[in-house]
Amino acid sequence: MKIYNTLTREKEEFKPIDSDIVKMYSCGPTVYNFAHIGNLRAYLFMDTLRRVLKYNGYKLKHVMNITDVGHMTSDQDEGEDKMMKAARRENKDPYEIADFYMKKFLEDIDKLNIDRPEIIARATEHIDVMEEYVKKIIENGYTYSTENTVYFDTSKLDKYGVLSNRKIEDQKAGARVEFDSKKKNISDFALWIKAPKEHIMRWNSFFGECYPGWHLECSAMSYKYLGDHFDIHTGGIDHIPVHHENEIAQSKGFSGKQPVNYWMHCNFLLVNGEKMSKSLNNLYTIDDLAKMGYEPLVYKMFNFTSNYRSQINFTIEAMDSAKIALSRLREGYLKHSEGTEKVSEDVIKDYENRFLEAINDDLNLPMAMSVVWDVVKNPVKSKDFQKLILKFDEVLGLGLINYKPDEVKLPEDVQELIKLRNEARRNKNWAESDRLRDELIKKGYTVKDTKEGTVVE
Ligand code: AMP
Ligand code: ZN
Fold first, then answer.
1. Separation of 38 CA from ligand 1 center, angstroms?
2. d(Cα 197, Cα 415) in Å, to the nearest integer?
């Protein structure tokens, strides 16, 4: 299996540290608002990665965090805590905000049939782990403190910026905002912050009543569950220059080690060429899509048209195509489930090999889908193909095994026409029967005569 590693900027053969279990961490959501479908793309990528690893026979120990404290409106410690801001906006307690949006997020990922990580860890439930982690970094000499904040001193590292390959000096030259004058270097970041009076989320600690910096939670919680060296870390590409650089810095300060072998990042969902984001006010949620007539799995299908490392543009045309594709896939699956023909093992093996080759080439879903379509469209109707499509669905996660076509309720006028036509036929009134048939056809139905009477499609 080959995956692209942001750390080495190469597609590499995946080799887990332990042969039987893959240890993996994904940066999860900040639960201060509804997730938009751009955010959800990052978790669809996470889902595909999980499923492909499982398809290759690996067991997983996968952690995803839920950020419910400490994430400032800017990733670089400027602005205010997103949870506090949301609490003010909605006139609620930040804990209520976190509970509400976390529940909603988990519902959204379930609707997308995203395979949930084994461990979902909330930042506010791991404050003790974070405090111990900070104390060790302080003990190891990688920090300095101002009156209100314990900062990580990035100049203590041999190199800061291993993922994005940036130097501290470059950041200074390119910086747009004046950084907090109390920081020694622009890339230094807050680990532990004294809570101002109005900050409701606060914990008694070695530094007074404090709350943790955002970056700290991922290092501390991944350490707690996965140790100081694990296999894969995922996130969005926006995490590369700050959040993940800071995680690497913290781990070096804590254990002296680069914590992760493979860093993987998902690219953005665009709308009209711009990133979908709250600040640009161009976002859609899963609920918005439902109102537009797209079930959640249509959005999943839409994502399979591009590789996770490429940007993808959200358009109504593309969503309409994905909607048609999903129903064709379901129809094809049902067609094969009614099949009686046998297919040779060689033919099945050949499709399996092509599918495996595609997904193992850095999760190449567009290529894998072309194999799925070849099977779906195969004119030989066979249960062997049905089984094969179900096997592929272990990776796609479209829930085909539970798929049943909806029972369609016919509009009342159509039901009435059918009733009249059945009566006309019983009375051998063929002219009236033909007239009613034509009326049904005009309404867009095909009409069949069966022993049970008129059947429309
Ligand atoms: P947040 O909850 O704001 O911390 O973001 C959660 C995840 O959504 C992060 O991994 C971001 O990289 C990702 N994300 C945000 N906007 C987009 C977008 N337009 N397309 C894809 N991923 C995004
Ligand atoms: Zn993180």
1. 6
2. 67
Q: If you take atom 14 of ligand 1, which residue's CA is the nearest one?
A: 39
Candidates 447, 449, 141; CA nearest to 457 is 447
pTM over 0.85: yes
Six token digits for residue 453: 């009477």
| Nearest ligand to the CA atom of 219 | 2
Q: Tens digits of per-residue pLDDT, 53-109?
A: 999 999 999 999 999 987 877 776 767 788 888 888 888 888 899 999 999 999 999
Query: Which of ligand 1's atoms lies nearest the C-alpha of 270?
Result: 19
Distance CA 321, CA 323 (A): 5
For residue 66, the CA-to-ligand 2 centroid distance in Å is 9
Report long-range pairs for 291-298 (Cβ below 8 Å, ≥24 apart).
Answer: 292/316, 292/319, 293/323, 294/319, 294/322, 294/323, 295/326, 296/108, 296/111, 296/112, 296/113, 297/112, 297/113, 297/326, 297/398, 297/399, 298/322, 298/323, 298/326
Q: Ligand 1 mean position to 408 CA, how many Å?
A: 38
Residues 408, 412, 418, CA angle at the centre, nearest 5°?
A: 85
Task: Note the ligand closest to the C-alpha atom of 265.
Answer: 1
Cα 81 to its chain centre, rounded Å, is 24
Which residues form the pocket of ligand 1, taking CB atoms under 6 Å from any ligand atom? 27, 29-30, 38-39, 41-42, 235-236, 238-239, 268-269, 275-277
Give yes or no for a contact between 13 and 361, defined as CB atoms under 8 angstroms apart: no
- Tell me the CATH number for domain 2-143+154-164+214-266: 3.40.50.620
Mutate to test the pocket of ligand 1, among 6, 39, 71, 280 (most ligand atoms within 8 A of CB): 39
Classified by CATH at the fold level, domain 277-402 comes out as Isoleucyl-tRNA Synthetase; Domain 1 (1.10.730)
Closest CA to 322 of 298, 306, 303, 304: 298
> Ligand 2 center to residue 124 CA distance, Å?
14
Is the C-alpha dihedral spanning 10, 14, 18, 22 positive or negative?
A: positive
Question: Once rounded to an integer, what is the mean pLDDT over residues 35-60?
Answer: 97
